[in-house]
Amino acid sequence: MKKSIVILFVLIGFSLSAQNTKLEVLKEFVAGSISFNDEFADLGQPIVTINKLAEKQADKTVDLTKDNIKETLELAKNYKTCIITVGVHTIVKITDFENCSPSGAWGASMPMGKGYVQKAGVLNEKNDYIKNIIGRPGSQERKVFLFK
């Protein structure tokens, strides 16, 4: 019985450590653009926290759709940092507006980006054209946060 209790506490400790690590990785990823308030952080879904903070701190916020993607990407070139979130599971930062790949689904040329996709509670790093990170246009909420 005592072994079971000890094992349970160890597993809970590892779980909390992994969640803190996710938050730390994402804090570093958005450093210089978004300031964090630790008491506000959702450890299970840190991208929820980023969405809320970015909404307040961004110089401009745009709901990304297939209809406005060309204009939004053109506008983003005038800002220092462009962060895109998809729902509560994906975050991407555009890294190179010059290196682009056409997207038939979006009807636009999509720049390179670096981001993270959370699946089954684990953050997976992605370095690719943003079309391959944010997915196809659809009903998911996509937000663009622009920072000067």
Task: Please explain how this structure is put together.
- Residues 8-19 have low confidence and may be disordered.
- It is globular and about 40 Å long.
- The chain is an alpha+beta fold and 148 residues long.
- Strands 1-6-2-3-4-5 form a six-stranded antiparallel sheet.
- It contains four helices and six strands; from the N terminus they run ααβαββββαβ.
In short, what is this structure?
This protein has 148 residues and is α+β, with helices and mostly antiparallel strands. It has helices spanning 2-30, 46-57, 69-76, 130-134; strands at residues 60-63, 81-86, 90-103, 108-119, 122-129, 142-147. It has a six-stranded antiparallel sheet with strand order 1-6-2-3-4-5.
Main beta sheet: strand number and arrangement? 6 strands, antiparallel
| Oligomeric state | single chain
Distance between the termini: 57 Å
**Percent range for helical residues?**
25-40%
Number of strands: 6
**Widest β-sheet, arrangement of strands:** 1-6-2-3-4-5
- What structural category do the secondary elements indicate? alpha+beta
Globular, elongated, flat, extended or rod-shaped: what is the shape?
globular
Q: Could you state the order of secondary-structure elements as H and E?
A: HHEHEEEEHE
Topology:
Layout: H1 2-30, H2 46-57, E1 60-63, H3 69-76, E2 81-86, E3 90-103, E4 108-119, E5 122-129, H4 130-134, E6 142-147
Antiparallel strand pairs: 1-6, 2-3, 2-6, 3-4, 4-5
Supply database-style keywords.
single chain, 6 strands, globular, 148 residues, 4 helices, alpha+beta
